[in-house]
Amino acid sequence: MADEVKLYRTWSSRFSLRIVWALHIKGIEYEAIFEDLSHKSPQLLQYNPVHKKVPVLVHKGKPICESLVILEYIDETWKETTPLLPQDPYEKAMARFWAKFVDDKLLPSVQSVFTEKGYEAKKEALVPAVKNLEIIEEQLKEKKYFGGESIGYVDLVLGWMAYLLDVFEEVIDLKLFDAHKFPLLSGWMKNFCDAPAIKQHLPPRDKLVTKYQLLHEKYQTTSN
Amino acid sequence: MADEVKLYRTWSSRFSLRIVWALHIKGIEYEAIFEDLSHKSPQLLQYNPVHKKVPVLVHKGKPICESLVILEYIDETWKETTPLLPQDPYEKAMARFWAKFVDDKLLPSVQSVFTEKGYEAKKEALVPAVKNLEIIEEQLKEKKYFGGESIGYVDLVLGWMAYLLDVFEEVIDLKLFDAHKFPLLSGWMKNFCDAPAIKQHLPPRDKLVTKYQLLHEKYQTTSN
What we know:
The structure is a homodimer of 224-residue chains. With 224 residues, chain A is α+β, with helices and mostly antiparallel strands.
């Protein structure tokens, strides 16, 4: 039943897309509710009073917030279809460790290249971002996906990189990612975006470029 | 076997103590290795090359890092004894949500009252910290512990508050916590510290005061 699962999202939220992809990979029917973050709906504020953010998954009337928490909930609730996390406790711990690394280290470091003002500051911010990319590249050795032969938890968490990195590069006019230096990540990005459950649920590139151009302009002109 | 489980920790690390308590609650025999963070051991750097931090749990020679990840690993590996997380996926998601709230919001907000320079700045930093305490207080309604009748995952994650808040208050000479305003948290702090598995594994208060006095002095004298 479509009304059993609802997802509060926006068209471009990186954290919401993780959930969209997971629901499609698992074949879970759901209703998407698109939020305008400048006018958040009373439902969103009621379901996520602490953070007031998307994504929120509502299952049988009960809300779950925070994308990593939602992904684990989905995997534990619909466990018969396509597992996202490994079953072995050690392998599962590793997946959680790398998901946390992506959210706590990699994403903020790439984000800061985008937000820093001016070429020199951006070049400086690139150093830790590249270091984090090197760490993640290592994890793909002898694997198609972080989850092995199929897309799993860490792939979904890192998914923003696969479609957003070259949008960032176009907008800030700076090379973030050298495919020769990161052959495994480069292959992963292609495989990830080509997977049907992902490909059909990526935001339109031209709309992303426009969105991030406006955002970048704002970052470059406002004082810190 | 004692050499099966090793914990790299320091005497006072709040994140290490979560693991110490979990191991004792579960009755897991382990060897504690005390690190000097100004001279990290080659083993610590080898086991946690990404963050180079304690705690690291080594089980059968395999390292697990990040305290929240370690807690889940312990709960999934030694599942026969005293569960830390609820079994129901929704209840489990709620526990994960609140643990994340403690680490992402509550802890940094309390920490910033400690690190801010001068009385006025500290008073200002107190506003979001108190707001976060109010949110957490709400979660204790009709419960002894966040885990219900016994100490669970969220209790361990929030455990630093139970023994450290009044150390902070003494060191910075500012009331952080009004017991009348937070009767449930106040009761929880007492119950938590009195529980045998916790009480026997708390750092000595006088040593904590000395440590945080030195740290506070540093924060108050160095430029931001």
